[in-house]
Amino acid sequence: MTDPSVIIAGGGIGGLVTALTLHQIGVPCTVYESVREMRPLGVGINLQPNAVRELGDLGIGDGDLDRVGLPAKEWALVGLNGNDIYAEPRGLLAGYNWPQYAVHRGLLHMLLHDKVVERLGPDAVRLGRQVKGYRRQDDGVTAFVEAADGSRSEEHGTLLIGADGIHSAVRAQMHPDQPPIHWGGALMWRGTSRGRPIRTGASFIGLGTHRHRVVVYPISPPGADGLATINWIAEVVVDNSEGWKQRGWFREVGIDEFAHHFADWRWDWLDVPALIRGADKVYENPMIDRDPVPTWQDGPVALLGDAAHAMYPTGSNGASQAIVDARVLGAAIVAHGVNAEALAAYDQKLCAPISQVVLRNRGAGPFGLLNLVDERCGGTFDDIDAVVPAAERTAFMAGYKAAAGFAVEQLNAAAPTIPPGARARLA
Q1: Cα–Cα distance, 78 to 65 (Å, whole number)
Q2: What is d(CA 125, CA 232) in angstroms, rounded to the nearest whole number?
Q3: What are the tens digits of pLDDT across the range 194-237?
Q4: Cα(350)–Cα(160) distance, integer angstroms
Q5: What is the CA radius of gyration of the chain?
Q6: Is 166 helix (H, G, I), strand (E, B) or coil?
Q7: Got the DSSP string for 9-44?
Q8: DSSP string, 294-310
């Protein structure tokens, strides 16, 4: 008998962490990624302490993450008149045993890719090849792979992991009757600009209302000039009764197409128009997700990351959950072997609770506090305690953290997802 092997469809964050995890536990794998060249695309994302912990257990520690971002110190929501709605420390300052990181998504992606190539070898990630579907077999699964030149091949493995994103071909075959991509009407413009960090110097700030807001946070430490790379997201909710009319879901746009929505957003501590106009490139995309599905498993095939649970970015935990997915999958394979039983255990542990997080994020996630403030006072207030009492604000945030898996006491007390030195049974 040949040793079992795993095919990974998709070389994004989830797919690459899956490859690193399988290598760590001794399971051969190959990643098939549709792009012809890996490039550091994207803007800022957050890695929650639960994900940072898992990366550390993979040997990707603070030294690596410091090269692609910086530890976050604060998370805050601010009303339209510049007054705080809610603020709390984050990461180590909040009592976690691990930091929270704000990173450049593209630089993190390249870091993970380089680690895979270094540890698994140059043939571990096969670029310009997309998994288009699969066929279940008694001895595993066959993936249908299409190359960038149009040629096709069939690749056999023991398991197939569909980490191929929100447009997943693996998910489409597994759930052919799934509804189309869901868009609730929020439209986002994203960019990075050089600017002076505000508040703690490493603060995540959500400012405005649930229908009209900006998010601002640094993804690099300040340079000699005192300026850092600031990630920003500008967002408005529009009429979506006719659905999304653009041809694609992500495009580069001119600043003048949207800057008027935020023309008067200036405070003594933040100049939003200047921040927007300081960007070299700006990208527009609707805030989209997919309705949860009842299972992420089809025999020897499982979904992971956005293919399993594409979610609104309101909770800042999409990439973090993909990392946790990969680690929970690895733990299941250690416990059960390289087989469908392991995939069933992974599905049983994560599918239902993370589907609820998808719906929480669709309901604004932790930004739901902005909804409450808007409903009660229109977003402008002098005393937040008179609008939403402190105990209500604290309880709201605690509920989200528990659902998303990064409540501080639970995380600090939890045993490692994969014990040090654990290996999968290959027989």
Answers
A1: 28
A2: 31
A3: 999 999 999 999 998 888 999 999 999 999 999 999 999 999 99
A4: 18
A5: 22
A6: coil
A7: E--SHHHHHHHHHHHHTT--EEEEES-SS------E
A8: S-SEETTEEE-THHHH-
Q: Which two tokens stand for residue 149?
A: 């030149």
DSSP state of 259: G
Burial of 144 (0-12, 13-18, 19+ CB in 10 A): middle
Q: How far apart are CA 232 and CA 275, in angstroms?
A: 8
Main-chain dihedrals φ then ψ at residue 312, nearest 5 degrees: -60, 145
Which of 163, 232, 228 is closest to 197 using CA atoms? Answer: 228
Residue reference for tokens 């992991």 = 161
Helices assigned H by DSSP within 88-164? 105-120
Q: Where on the phi/psi map is residue 297: left (φ > 0), alpha (ψ -120 to 50), or beta?
A: beta
Q: Residue 248's pLDDT is what?
A: 75
CA within 13 Å, CB half, 45? 21
Consecutive H or E run containing 331 = helix 318-336
Amino acid identity, position 253: V
Instruction: Count the Cβ atoms, other than its own, within 10 Å of residue 184.
Output: 14
Structure tokens at 328: 């929970």
Per DSSP (E only), the strands in 226-375 are 228-237, 251-253, 266-267, 270-271, 282-289, 297-298, 301-303
For residue 78, what are the CA distances in angstroms to 145, 213, 338? 48, 10, 48
Half-sphere exposure of 139 (CA within 13 A, CB side): 8
pLDDT tens digits for 116-129? 999 999 999 999 99
Closest CA to 97 of 47, 63, 50: 50
Task: Look up the pTM and report it.
Answer: 0.94
- The token pair at 346 is 């992974």
d(CA 108, CA 269) in angstroms, rounded, equals 30
Classify 420 as helix, strand or coil.
coil
82-96 b/e (C-beta count within 10 Å ≥ 16 → b): eeebbbebbbebbeb
Nearest by Cα to 219 from 100, 335, 337: 100
CA-to-CA distance for 85 and 63, rounded, in angstroms? Answer: 34
The three-point CA angle 55-89-385 to 5° equals: 140
